[in-house]
Amino acid sequence: MIFVSGIHGVGKDYFLKNIEEVTGVKSYSASSLIEEYGNVELNADKKTKDISGNQDYLLQAIRSEKLPKEYILNGHFCLLNEKGEPERIPIETFYGLNPSKIIILKEKPEIIVERRMARDRQEVSVEGTKRFQDEEIAYGKEVAKKLGVQIGVFDAGNESKQAAQFILQNMNR
Predict the structure, then answer these.
(1) In Å, how far from its chain's centre is CA 102?
(2) pLDDT digits (tens, 9 = 90+) for 125-143
(3) How far apart are CA 33 and CA 72, in angstroms?
(4) Do residues 19 and 160 touch, judged by C-beta distance below 8 A?
(5) Boundaries of every domain in the chain
(6) Cβ–Cβ contacts within 10 Å for residue 123, how many?
């Protein structure tokens, strides 16, 4: 499994749609799996009440789904807690997921702010978005180091070819 992360509004869904077309590797949304297995409804403001508990639902879903041998999981290293502050997802979640590679997507905070307003009708600050993205990247790198897996940090809008090549390295395709 390849874990693809990035903060809300970075462009993961669009990016992964293109990656699926190029690589043929199917992607699954951690949020959708959590909603399905935990019967949890996630909010448009992206604030999460039980970050740790939701990860238990994700691991349960991953274990019980009939997923292909090679797939991409679209998720996060950090989420916004009830106060709207970035909070790290417990490292145990990533040990349980056991990704073979990690990709972190990044984008200019100003673009993310525009997307959040257009998509979610949520007004977020550029400064808060930058802080959230910086924490996502820093923690993602920390997790990759602890797990001993390859990591790639790519610009969501401009580096999809490089990301596709990174995904395809060492795959049986």
Answers:
(1) 9
(2) 889 999 999 999 999 999 9
(3) 13
(4) yes
(5) 2-168
(6) 8
> Are 112 and 2 within 8 A, CB to CB?
no
State how far the Cα of 117 lies from the Cα of 131, in Å rounded to an integer.
18
The pTM score is 0.90
Q: Which residue has the higher pLDDT, 47 or 2?
A: 2
The yes or no reply on domain 2-168 and CATH 3.40.50.300 is yes
Amino acid at the residue 147: L
CB 42 within 8 A of CB 95: no
**Which tokens sit at 19?**
């990656």
CA-CA distance, 118 to 169, in Å (whole number)? 35
Give the residue ranges of DSSP H helices in 65-159.
91-97, 109-120, 126-147
